[in-house]
Specification:
The chain has a 4-stranded parallel β-sheet, with helices on both faces. It has a 3-stranded parallel β-sheet with strand order 2-1-3, with helices on both faces. It is α/β, with parallel strands linked by helices. Helix 2 runs antiparallel to helix 3 and helix 5 crosses helix 10. Helices cover 52% and strands 12% of the residues. Strand 1, helix 1 and strand 2 form a beta-alpha-beta unit. It has 2 domains: 116 residues, Rossmann fold; 111 residues, Rossmann fold (3-Layer(aba) Sandwich).
């Protein structure tokens, strides 16, 4: 009898990104497990407003408490490990990991490994202002000898507005897609050879077909890493 895959716990923050991650796990699970099959998946989410309130006042301890409480609830119903399809709140993950009842995959580490495998060396970072100005990606990339490049201040403001006012609400404006393409084109002129879609909603509007640079889709890369871990971890038990 084949080993049962590990149970994936999704600590969600924004609905659009979490939904894309969940759908990817379920749809692509068939590649590992057969038609219509995927590992057991559970998802818990506090209101995005709860996270946004903490982020707005720079309360990373509060962000971590929300993540940790979600993890505890997921562990209580059988999740074997956790993923979080939200790049921004990974800034609180070091503290969360130390107190978590179950292990976590780190979205930026997953993206960094993929960039290294593809041969990219200098990556543009896109995402919310909190993410772009933080150390989530610079730290993960530096650990693998890769460079992180941040957009300029005006581009950061535009990215943040598009993400928080539109994409997390399910709004997709053509003019905003054009603005995102301009940001990525500027990163290309700055010597980047790929761009990290460091907001889990960005893959809903930007991909390799319309981006000036090759994309590293953090949402789907995390989902695929979770699938590999669920299947391979079960075999190792």
């Amino acid at each position: 009898m084949a080993a049962r895959p590990l149970h994936i716990g999704i600590v969600a923050c924004s609905a659009e990104g979490a939904a894309l991650c969940y759908r990817t796990v379920c749809i692509e699970g068939a590649r590992w497990l057969g038609a219509h099959a995927h590992p057991e998946v559970s998802l818990h989410s506090y209101s995005l407003a709860d996270y946004a309130a903490c982020l707005g006042r720079g309360d990373w301890a509060g962000v971590g408490d929300l993540m940790l409480d979600s993890a505890r609830k997921l562990a209580a119903i059988g999740a074997d490990f956790m993923i979080c399809p939200d790049n921004t709140i990974h800034q609180a993950l070091p503290v969360v990991r130390a107190r978590s009842p179950k292990p976590w995959l780190h979205i930026a580490e997953v993206v960094a490994d993929e960039a290294l495998q593809r041969g990219h060396r200098r990556l543009g970072i896109t995402g919310t202002r909190w993410l772009v100005e933080g150390e989530v990606y610079p730290a993960a990339l530096a650990g693998r000898g890769l460079a992180a490049v941040r957009p300029d201040a005006a581009a950061r403001d535009e990215l943040h507005r598009i993400i928080m006012d539109e994409l997390v609400c399910g709004v997709r404006e053509p003019d905003s897609v054009t603005a995102l393409q301009r940001v990525i084109a500027a990163l290309a002129r700055d010597g980047c050879d790929a761009v990290v879609l460091g907001c889990t909603e960005l893959p809903l509007v930007i991909d390799d077909t319309n981006s000036p640079l090759p994309v590293l889709d953090s949402t789907r890369l995390l989902a695929r890493a979770a699938l590999r871990h669920a299947v391979q971890g079960a075999l190792a038990r």
